[in-house]
Design a protein that fits this description.
2 domains; 14 strands; binds pyridoxal-5'-phosphate; Aspartate Aminotransferase, domain 2; about 400 residues; three-stranded antiparallel β-sheet; alpha/beta
Length: about 400
């Protein structure tokens, strides 16, 4: 009976199994109130424009689906993947993609591995490196996975703020030497969720020098590297000479090719870190359905997501131009699916999100959900279900413009 306590109800005795204490480390869910309001709006039959979740609304390009259908007819794909880090065609495609896109040479055998989506790789990197008392340096605001998994692994989080005045790129020189010397991991994410910010290559140069000085592994989350606008192309940290000594970079096909449900991504970079992550993972999972990895190989070699990027560009312009015109200043992102906007005077992230939901039927995410430095901001996603050509974003702008108490000069 060890670990089982018996709680009595009036009718029977029900065993209550105490969950692992590490789960108590997970910070409270801050979107609960917004989620409840969303449910109510839907139950009331309101026409909600949901700019919340960053999940591509467009289908996966047809040629990738065809590649999956073909690969699935090969019985070899029906069995366990007993390779070291993924099927060779997939790892070769990863290597080819890195060369073509970033000019970076990746040894497909030692410097690349398959992931079941980048979230899986990110969370397991924390588990592979963080012991109780170890330090992770984590940006704020940020995708919550870096912090939560560090905490669950018993580590400590040292927060580096991402501030508007420095383009949401952290100032590494402000990290105390004692913290830097003790830290094991530095988490970075550009193009950035939630701020939509991008980092210049010069920042990566600084980060690599910092990591070498303090013997830290950089985990660069590049999940949005292929969601970009105009002529801008995000860099890989591995373009920095010597970066492979201290950096591992995680990529995803989720946002690049509208494949969030397929669960496929990859890690590239430092061979030791790849082997370490692989050691942990080989005791946790058995990789992905190989047919999915063959379809992903096709996507990396010749997939075309330009139609979706054109649609995002149109939506971004409609939303940003529209909000700027009504008197809510917002910056157009150069990459990612997100517009990160400061809330008007007198509101908090949460109170303004509630107002938008209740008065305009527009759902946005309060920035505090991504950390304390997200206070005063909201995140709006360009992935809008049911939007064919930007008309739902036009409607969102019209409804926001009609909030006369907030935007008296909107002209609506
Ligand atoms: C910054 C960031 N990294 C990683 C992921 C995970 O993507 P996936 O696990 O689908 O590859 C997300 C998903 O929203 C994200 O926003």
């Amino acid at each position: 009976m060890c670990g089982i306590s018996l709680a009595k109800t009036s009718e029977e005795t029900v065993p209550v199994i105490a969950r692992a204490k590490r789960l108590d480390q997970i910070p409270p869910y801050l979107f609960g109130e917004i989620a409840a309001l969303k449910r109510k709006a839907i139950a009331d039959g309101r026409d909600l424009i949901d700019l919340g979740i960053g999940d591509p609304d467009q289908p996966t390009p047809g040629s990738i689906i065809d590649a999956l259908a073909k690969a699935a007819t090969n019985p070899e794909t029906h069995r366990y993947d007993e390779t070291n880090a993924g099927w060779t065609p997939f790892l070769d495609a990863v290597s080819g993609f890195c060369k073509k896109r970033f000019g970076v040479d990746i040894d497909a055998e030692k410097e690349a591995m398959l992931l079941i989506g980048s979230k899986e790789g990110l969370s397991h990197l924390a588990w592979a490196y963080i012991d109780p008392g170890d330090i992770s340096i984590v940006p704020d605001p940020a995708y919550t996975v870096y912090k939560v998994n560090t905490l669950m692994a018993g580590g400590d989080v040292y927060t580096i703020p991402l501030l508007p005045d420095s383009g949401f790129v952290p100032d590494l020189s402000r990290i105390p030497e004692a913290v830097a010397d003790k830290a094991k991991l530095l988490w970075l994410n550009y193009p950035n969720n939630p701020t939509g910010a991008v980092a210049p290559l010069s920042f990566y140069v600084e980060a690599v020098a910092f990591a070498k000085k303090h013997n830290i592994l950089i985990v660069n989350d590049a999940a949005y590297s292929e969601v970009y606008y105009g002529d801008y192309r995000p860099n890989s940290i591995l373009e920095v000479p010597g970066a492979k000594d201290v950096a591992i970079e995680l990529h995803s096909l989720s946002k690049s090719f509208n494949m969030t449900g397929w669960r496929i991504g990859f890690a590239i970079g430092n061979a030791e870190a790849i082997a370490t992550l692989n050691k942990l993972k080989s005791n946790l999972d058995s990789k992905q359905f190989p047919a999915i990895s063959l379809a992903a190989a096709h996507a990396l070699a010749q997939g075309d997501n330009s139609a979706t990027l054109e649609l995002y560009t149109r939506r971004r312009d409609i939303l940003c131009d529209g909000l700027n015109a009504l008197g809510w200043p917002v910056t157009k992102p150069q990459a990612t699916l997100y517009v990160w906007a400061k809330v008007p005077e007198g509101y908090t992230a949460m109170s303004f999100s509630k107002l938008l939901l209740e008065e305009a039927g527009v759902l946005v995410i309060p920035g505090v959900g991504y950390g304390e430095y997200g206070e005063g901001f909201v995140r709006m996603s360009l992935t809008v279900m049911g939007d064919k050509n930007g008309e739902r974003l036009e409607e969102a702008v019209r409804r926001i413009a009609a909030l006369k108490d907030v935007f008296p000069n909107s002209g609506a």
